[in-house]
Design goal:
The complex is a heterodimer of chains A (113) and B (113). Chain A has 113 residues and is mainly beta. Chain A contains no helices and eleven strands. Helices cover 0% and strands 58% of the residues of chain A. In chain A, strands 2, 4, 5, 6, 9, 10 and 11 form a seven-stranded mixed beta sheet that branches. Chain A starts with a strand and ends with a strand. In chain B, strands 2, 5, 6, 10, 11 and 12 form a six-stranded mixed beta sheet that branches. Classes of the chains: A mainly beta (113), B mainly beta (113). Chains A and B meet through β4, β5 and β10 of A and β5, β6 and β11 of B.
Chain lengths: 113, 113
Amino acid sequence: DAGITQSPRHKVTETGTPVTLRCHQTENHRYMYWYRQDPGHGLRLIHYSYGVKDTDKGEVSDGYSVSRSKTEDFLLTLESATSSQTSVYFCAISESQGQSPLHFGNGTRLTVT
Amino acid sequence: AQSVAQPEDQVNVAEGNPLTVKCTYSVSGNPYLFWYVQYPNRGLQFLLKYITGDNLVKGSYGFEAEFNKSQTSFHLKKPSALVSDSALYFCAVRDQAGTALIFGKGTTLSVSS
């Protein structure tokens, strides 16, 4: 797995609490992404980053924020967790746009009770 | 808007038989197309990509994919399936101006011995 570490791997939290997921890469890739995976929906893009402090929204960004203060770290924050945010969250990186594939971390399984 | 369809939720094939996992796409202009595989409790692994040129693309683990522009399809194939090929397969697309990948909902491949 291409130098991508997600933490924590599993988390259970209560509705209404803030949660931060971390993605750390050692590949020095410019682009980083957060996706969520849900049965019947495949993977859906939450936010992505195209450089330090440069981020943009994806398809399902409501209720999420991101930050990227260093090339290697991309944080995903759930402002106030809801049960609908129970999911598996994947971080991905890519060297460039266009033909460059994404490489994925092993995911964080988040359960909101 | 870009989109990907994987019309089969599940494909069942006997070991040693050829397999096909179907994918159709919609994108403005020329597409970049990708196939990924996901094993349980793991992230997605990149299998192959189509950029331009030959319509038959070869990738990892003996997989190949056939690009058909007129049918806007990019089907994944393997001449002889292995039990170890059993996994969840995702097709993804990116247009030439895009950053993130848009994924299909996934197809579960089950190879029986």
